[in-house]
Amino acid sequence: MLLALAVASAFVPAGSAAADPSNPVGPLTDLSIRTCPALFALGVQGTGESSPDAAPTTDTGMLSTVFSPMMAAAAEPGLVDRAYVPYESAFGGIDAKRATPYTESVATGLVRLRTMAAQVASRCADTRFALVGYSQGAHVVSMFAQEIGKGSGVIPAEKVAAVALFADPTRNPGAPLFPGAPGRQTPEPAPGTSGARVAEVAALPLTPADGGGIGPERDRATDFAALTGRVASFCAAGDLACDAPSGAPVLRAVANVAGQATLSGGDPIASLMSISQALAYTSIKTVTEVATEDVQGTSLTNLSIAPKKSISQRIADASDPRAPIDLAGAVQALLRVGMI
After folding, report:
1. Terminal-residue alpha carbon distance, the chain
2. How far apart are CA 295 and CA 90, in angstroms?
3. How do residues 93-102 score in pLDDT, each as one tens digit?
4. What pLDDT, in 10s, does the model give residues 71-112?
5. How is residue 28 annotated by DSSP?
6. DSSP tag of 292
7. Domains in the chain, start-ordered, CATH in brackets?
8. Which SS3 state, helix, strand or coil, does residue 70 take?
9. Position 177 pLDDT exceeds 60
């Protein structure tokens, strides 16, 4: 909250006013922007805290404890505004709500966040962004921030004042408060500011959690490129979303399989089929990798196994639904072992 207000005030010259409310932007994923504040905060809620038709300006869920005080503390009208990204926020029905698999929910949340950010940027050329995500929402925001940092996002890095991730499933093991910037105690100044105001924001005296996020390894980033120093990742020790044991790839594999399954309480057969399909694809990809990468030799006399990764790591990698499945390659790998 303090960081958001500090950044916002740095962008607003004395006596400035909000944009003309008589010139509203068009529909913005159920939201219309009628002013162009110095800082616009976009929040992505955690699992079960949002829905595709949720009201973007209704303060609910964990992030309301961040945004409500921020709005109340704004020094002047038009300085700060906020919106929540409406999306599935589902985990395959495990929360007894929507049956959308976690991986699909994250993907649709990312699309909606891109859309909202792009439309605000097109309407408000001078507005900067604060991006905030909690749990599944932090997964979405982390992916979005990685795109921006690499220069492939829908808005440029200089448009982003700050990013806050709470219980981020993509967090690297032992990552510091500012990923990629160990030892940093205050946020990197936002582009176009001196940093004098954000320098007054004291970092919380927390020891970084030893573990890492439970999300797919390919979604992790050691830093956020051009946004490094402006991205803060908060993780409470023992929170499995962001502090899963770093030496437990099987735990990540379980999370990956659960994340692509549809667990419908009203249809146990469909639930079992969904899990079976995820396990089958994982098994096929694992066996293919082992047979191709780890099995050496052409006959029983020179047959050897030299694992480049542990079986549990192979399973964790294969359980990511975005890892390609090569059925032809799987058949060739098994035929090779069979011929030996």
Report:
1. 64
2. 40
3. 665 567 788 8
4. 888 877 788 999 999 999 988 766 556 778 888 999 999 999
5. B
6. I
7. 2-234 (3.40.50.1820), 249-339 (no CATH)
8. helix
9. yes
pTM to 2 decimal places: 0.76
The CA distance from 129 to 38, in Å, is 9
**How far is 26 from 33, CA to CA, in rounded Å?**
8
Give mean pLDDT, residues 235-244: 90
Shortest CA distance to 216 belongs to which of 104, 313, 317, 105? Answer: 317
* Greater model confidence, 247 or 294: 294
Measured CA to CA, the distance from residue 243 to residue 175 in angstroms comes to 10
DSSP 244: B
Q: Model confidence at 5, in pLDDT bands (50, 70, 90)?
A: very low
DSSP H helix total and E strand total for the chain:
8, 7
Radius of gyration of the chain (CA): 23
Residue scoring higher pLDDT (23 or 276): 276
What is the three-class DSSP state of 259? Answer: helix
Give the whole-angstrom CA distance, residue 58 versus residue 26.
Answer: 19
Enter the DSSP assignment of 174: T
With a cut of 50, say whether residue 294 has pLDDT above it: yes
User: Can you say whether residue 167 is alpha, beta or left, with left for phi > 0 and alpha for psi between -120 and 50 degrees?
Assistant: left
- Say whether 24 sits in a helix, a strand or coil: coil
Closest CA to 82 of 61, 64, 57: 57
Which backbone phi and psi does 81 adopt, to 5 degrees?
-140, 170
Q: What is the mean pLDDT of residues 147-159?
A: 97
Q: Region 286-314: what's the mean pLDDT?
A: 76
Query: Each residue of 11-20: pLDDT tens digit?
Result: 443 333 333 3
Q: How far apart are CA 338 and CA 340, in angstroms?
A: 5
Contacts of 340 (CB under 8 A, 6+ apart): 295, 297, 298, 299, 300, 303
Q: How buried is 285 (Cβ within 10 angstroms: 0-12 exposed, 13-18 middle, 19+ buried)? A: buried
Burial 262-276 (b: 16+ CB within 10 A, else e): bbeeeeeeebeebbe
Distance from chain centroid for Cα 296: 39
The neighbour count for residue 202, using CB atoms within 10 Å, is 9
